[in-house]
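Figure 2 data, in text form.
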Amino acid sequence: MNIFKTWNAKLNNYASVELRGNQLLNHIPYISMKDVDKLTDSRIIFIKPLKEDYLTINKCSYKNKVFIDILDDFSNIRELVNTLHNNITAIWPSYYALSTFKMFFDRNYVVYHQADQRLSYSSYNNITKPNAIYYGSVHKYRKMFNNIKCISPSKNNLSILTNYNIHYISRTSPYRYDPVTKLSTASKIPNTVVYLSLSDVGYAEILGQEYPFYIEKFKSIEDVKASFNTAIWYKAIKRMRFINDNVLNFNLIQSQILNIINN
């Protein structure tokens, strides 16, 4: 079978399409959404499908093996699932998301979101004091602290991340199933930790209960900063290194998604 990737043209400038389509699946040929329903006997992965794409997905699934890399668009799953053909494999961004929605599909897998390879992690600045940042979409930001710098993502400001060694992770409730991109990014930057709530379940499933810097354990960002270069800080760093090497490693994630598509 031939393998193709596709996504809605409206998403061409989205980071998720860059990271998944152009980086992770860089060796798979692209076909436009308007031409994809002409394919037969192929394997097709739809990246971040929108509500309007599911009619095409369903049509393709009768003649091809179809995969949907759902990423962060969960709003229409319950509404659309009864219209979908069974020959569709769902790829979820966390086990938390899978456990919530797996009943809607016959085949379900988890593939975590990798870090953006455009960031030069070798340019990391050896920071000598704790410095915190929230780097993400403002509308997903659950603001709890006034002394954390908040920056919206852009391919032009990626390098700023290497100036911060505490990455605050926050999600408002509608986005609790989103990918773990902030963790995969932070874990690649040396001597960097994340600060978050246990309620951010997708992240917590990777970090584990023993990870120290949860809001439930450290009530303020100042408490986290005060632990800089202490045993607790280095415990967190050790866990972050393990995650980067063994869970959110780019080559590992690429191998996982390709194995799903090829089997």
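Caption note: The domain at 121-246 is CATH 3.40.50.2000 (Rossmann fold).
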